[in-house]
Amino acid sequence: MATKKPKSSAKSKTKSTKPKTATASTAKSASVTSTAKPAVETKAEAIVSSPEKGSCFKGFFSKKYEENESILTIFKNPKFYGALLGEVIGTGLITILLFSLSLLGLSSIATYSFAVIAIFVGVYALSGACLNPIITAGMMASRRMSVIRGVMYIIAEIIGAWIGWLIFNSFHLAGGDSAYAIPTMTEIAEGKFGIVAAVEFMSAIIVAFFYARAIKYKKSVFTFAAVVAGGFAFVMVVSYVISAAFLGLSSNFIVNPAAALMFQIFPTSGENFGEIFGGICQALSVYALLPMIGGVLGFYASELTARLSGDKE
Length: 313
What we know:
The chain is mainly alpha-helical.
């Protein structure tokens, strides 16, 4: 019995030494971890402080709409037809408003702004309220909208503008000998192609830029509509001053290709087919092609400035 006592004491001694070893290793690992943390944090801070070159352009042309939206799927969605109907109604109302504004003059620009806000607020939940091929082209180019949706939107906008013109013209004809005549766009037929094209092109860039910036506030529909209406009002005032006061033009800007088609931009007579066809090409380039290119540039300008400034939607 006396010989067993030292063994038990040895065992207890061994057991007591094990925790010490574990404690020492834990302390050692903790000291290593504590010394490693500042290095990791310093490295992370260095990465944040010096971003990679060209990082602001990463994903510039990436898709910003539903990945599965294609010609095979989009027509199966009932909401798409509601969106098209919304574009028809909204563009028709915009066309009626533009005809009315062209008759009343610049003095009604405040009323015009409130009306635009009402139209965009009413249509936004249906289709996003493009209501203008300039905007639709910019949405497609910046990949905020699929090509098939954009093409169908442009068709719906042209139909809506035509319906709006029919409604406005029917009341004009019902009035008989009215003191007001429906305005037409005839400035390019008078040899002022370059000046008119410059005003339309510049105005389209500004309108598209305002719309692209307004998308940031899409969670607040009223704010979105107010920014868009403010952009349109700004363009109307500046274009009117530039064209009428400086260039001596009267009816040269409309900044909406769908509505412009209703303002009789195409020539109806000429010496031969070549002259008529040339006039049609000129009208399409001034009131449709160049403004839609301007719309694309306006969206790109908004996208670029937002990325360079670090502003995210």
